[in-house]
Specification:
6-stranded mixed β-sheet, single chain, about 30% helix, about 350 residues, 3 domains, Udp-n-acetylmuramoylalanyl-d-glutamate--2,6- Diaminopimelate Ligase, Chain: A, domain 1, alpha/beta, 5-stranded mixed β-sheet, Alpha-Beta Plaits, 15 strands
Length: about 350
């Protein structure tokens, strides 16, 4: 089995088009055509993790966080990022990151695993993405089928269900000195696919002039977006909820806002830094918001309307390792996949 077989499967669950613009998910080092000898799964690609991969004879590291977020002008080993990349390349180890694209999926995503740990039911995406666009193109009937198949091949024609959907209207086109039949072909696509969709259309109609229109569709996609919200099976008082949270997420401590003296039933959550979702959590009536990386003054924004529980960045995403292990081992049952034994949390606590 090749490295690309594993990464392609992971991307069928968490498509790269779902990653945020600042992110750098995907294959960072390594050759996709290389045979995979084993995969080591971690949150962070550190030097200790690379050493562990070498010891386990794994030539693939699957990390949640990308080791490389911005361009490097040189590789001299002067930072931990450069040392990790040098050691991985020198030892023939591919590093693959699956980050905000895994955060942004409902099924088999980071936030879904947290919700499972907390026992939430009726979960849904907290801030669904608006990803769909619609292409409309006017064509002579003789060219419509060729264009439609090209659009499907580029990923158009899916608006939440199976691919291969389009709509065609037969009409009469008029222009000075010319009248004739025309087909208006319409198909939906994911916004990041726009360039590929237009290229496929042009390539399918060499030398053929055509008129098209692209419009955004405002319907949110319930399958993709940031954060999650769900319900506890039974309401808890706030101290009981914090105890449940601490035990479920294996925490040593929780930073939280002042308790309101109200029961907790509806819980919003976001793995990693989620303060940008506080407004959504409030708007949807969450009693508590579980996330990480809140700044001091941001805690005031709870304004006694919600309990913010900051559990730590690493702590909120720690179960992503077992999530990825489950995804890979269930698909490739005979493949050697391992959860790292290295705790890569850079934040230490004095007890």
């Amino acid at each position: 089995m090749k490295i690309k077989d594993i990464t392609t499967y992971l991307e069928s669950i968490a498509p790269p088009l779902l990653q945020e613009s600042y992110d750098n998910a995907g294959l960072i080092t390594g050759e996709p055509e290389a045979e995979a000898t084993g995969a080591l799964i971690c949150l962070d690609s550190t030097e200790a993790v690379v050493d562990e991969a070498i010891a386990r004879r794994c030539n693939l590291i699957i990390a949640h966080h990308p080791i490389l977020f911005k361009g490097l002008k040189r590789l001299t080993g002067r930072s931990y990022v450069e040392r990790v990349l040098i050691k991985a390349i020198r030892n023939g180890i591919a590093i693959y990151a699956i980050h905000t694209n895994l955060d942004n999926v409902h099924h088999q995503g980071v936030n879904g695993r947290i919700a499972e740990k907390l026992g939430l039911v009726g979960t849904r995406i907290l801030a669904p993405k608006q990803l769909l666009k619609k292409l409309s193109v006017l064509l002579p009937p003789a060219h419509s089928e060729t264009a439609r198949q090209a659009l499907f091949a580029a990923g158009a024609g899916s608006s939440g269900g199976a691919p291969g959907h389009s709509y065609a209207t037969l009409g009469v086109g008029t222009s000075p000195g010319q009248t004739g039949a025309q087909v208006k072909l319409e198909a939906c696509f994911q916004a990041p696919q726009e360039a590929a969709v237009l290229k496929s259309l042009r390539d399918s109609l060499p030398g053929q002039p055509f008129t098209y229109e692209i419009v955004s569709i405002e319907n949110p996609d319930a399958r993709a977006g940031a954060g999650m919200i769900g319900q506890l099976p039974k309401a808890m008082n706030e101290k009981a909820f914090l105890k449940h949270l601490k035990e479920s997420m294996n925490l040593s401590c929780i930073r939280h806002t002042r308790l309101r003296g109200a029961p907790v039933r509806s819980v919003a959550l976001c793995g990693g830094a989620g303060s940008f979702l506080l407004g959504q959590a409030l708007a949807q009536g969450a009693d508590a918001f579980v996330t990480a990386d809140f700044k001091y003054h941001e805690f005031f924004d709870a304004d006694n309307r919600i309990v913010i529980a900051d559990i730590g960045h690493y702590e909120s995403e720690q179960f992503t390792i077992e999530l990825l292990y489950d995804i890979i081992s269930q698909k490739f049952s005979n493949f050697a996949a391992y959860c790292t034994e290295v705790n890569t949390n850079p934040v230490q606590y004095y007890h």
